[in-house]
Amino acid sequence: MNAILELAGLTVRIDGPEPRTLVHGVDVAIAPGERLGVIGESGSGKSLTALAVLGLLPHPLVAGGSARVRADAGSSPIEIVGTPSRRLDRVRGTTVGAVFQEPLASLDPLMRIGRQLAWPLQHHRGLRGEALRRAVLDALADVQLAQPERIARSYIHEISGGQRQRVAIALALAAGPRLLIADEPTTALDVTVQAGILDLLQREVSERGMSLLFISHDLPVLAGIADHVLVMKDGRQMEQGPTTQILGAPAQPYTAQLVTASRRLDDFLPAGPATGADA
Ligand SMILES: Nc1ncnc2c1ncn2[C@@H]1O[C@H](COP(=O)(O)OP(=O)(O)O)[C@@H](O)[C@H]1O
Ligand SMILES: [Mg+2]
Q: What is the mean pLDDT of residues 133-159?
């Protein structure tokens, strides 16, 4: 299979005098156009797995095993584990884009939004002048921001949380990645804003034929977007498979618990995305 992403025994551990393993070996592959959802309670190792794939683990955390990313269908995969971060600049953005829970994590407070977006469009797509200006406004309109001109001139503190996450998504998409990693992209947002962002992600992913690695602690949200699911608990992979199979007939008691708990929520909540707090 020409997987876009292939994890084989991927581990994350704390290096140093008292080494400790935080992620104990994840094995999963994402095919072109596939949407993998990673579900698990807070602290189960979801974000560390995503950061390892991006080559962005903070010191003293180190990855082990293998995480291979394929830049395009014909090329041989690039090994992320063990490759120095600076050599991964080309992979991040062009091949793999990322959106995090907190949009401010990927946005610069001191630079106008238009200039932040211009950078990847200029570097990865070679745009200049009027073509670049148009591309910036198109990128903002694509993520359904009304008044793209005004947003482009704004600083990040001048717009709302939902608008910031739309800008962060536009930034992640600007270089045309083949795989988008979205780590709890709606968890920090108001319920009313969440559904709009999920719709946007879903539409962008299918229109661009991208693959998606979508991380959430919220089962109903994940079930709505993922065609495959990977269940994690305490840094371990519990089970994986097609969403309908894993949620319809879980093999693991832990997954069954997650399913039952979210059904119970359905009885209490009005229709719409469920909310939850996650660290
Ligand atoms: N920089 C760090 N140093 C030490 N432990 C960490 C660090 N980052 C995360 N952890 C621990 O690793 C575990 C997994 O974290 P994480 O991947 O962020 O979980 P989540 O599934 O909520 O995204 C947690 O127990 C967390 O406390
Ligand atoms: Mg997390």
A: 96
42 CA from centroid of ligand 2 (Å): 6
Residues with CB under 6 A from ligand 1: 14, 22, 40, 42-48, 58, 61
- pTM over 0.90? The answer is yes
User: CA 7 to CA 232: how far, in whole Å?
Assistant: 14
Domains and CATH numbers, the chain: 1-95+179-187+210-279 (3.40.50.300), 97-176 (no CATH)
Q: Residue 267: pLDDT above 70?
A: no
Q: Best mutation site among 13, 21, 22 for ligand 1, i.e. most ligand atoms within 8 A of its Cβ?
A: 22
Centre of ligand 1 from the C-alpha of residue 48, in Å: 6
Distance CA 244, CA 259 (A): 12
Give the residue among 234, 235, 166 at the shortest CA–CA distance from 194: 166
Please tell me the predicted confidence (pLDDT) of residue 173: 93
* Per-residue pLDDT band at 279 (split at 50, 70, 90): very low
